[in-house]
Design brief:
single chain, about 170 residues, mainly alpha, 8 helices, globular
């Protein structure tokens, strides 16, 4: 699970930058747009509850496909009006990702080691948040803009979705 946690949080910590590049000029407006798109997180969490009987591979495939749609979508969006709903799809994936990854991690640990396992999981998740800026910089490698780098990450998510579904 640690590798998955590193790949997932990209857009969540970079909303301001994405919507500024999509033409939103004030922080107040960015916050309203992000708040609206973040409703996708709530819907994703609720959807997870309804889909829980699915195998973890399928849940991860849905999560990675949602991230792929959201990331590639905001990379290609011509403006924030088109980018915001695509971002909401990525937020939906985020709403499903956290409970899916936690359930997956908990299932791998015996009861007496679950607290330690969740400690490792939390550390990996927040390490992913911390490593996000240098990873995005490495993806750009001085040649891509930020949204283009987000699109590259989205393509990687589509590949991970295919792997998870095949597994």
């Amino acid at each position: 699970p640690a590798a998955d946690a590193v790949a997932l949080p990209s857009k969540a910590v970079q909303h301001g930058r994405i919507f500024a590049e999509l033409g939103v000029s004030t922080p107040a407006r960015i916050s309203w747009i992000v708040a609206a798109a973040s409703l996708g997180t709530v819907i994703g969490g609720y959807t997870y509850k309804q889909m829980r009987p699915l195998p973890v591979g399928w849940m991860l495939a849905i999560v990675f496909a949602g991230f792929g749609i959201g990331y590639v979508g905001v990379a290609l969006a011509p403006n924030w009006i088109i980018g915001a709903p695509l971002d909401a799809v990525g937020q939906f994936a985020g709403g499903m990702a956290i409970p899916t990854l936690i359930a997956w991690a908990l299932a791998r640990y015996p009861l007496e080691h679950r607290a330690r396992g969740m400690g490792f999981w939390g550390a990996a998740f927040f390490l992913g948040q911390f490593l996000n800026p240098p990873v995005m910089t490495a993806i750009a490698h001085g040649r891509l803009g930020f949204r283009q780098s987000t699109g590259v990450l989205g393509l990687a998510c589509f590949a991970l979705a295919a792997v998870a579904a095949w597994r």
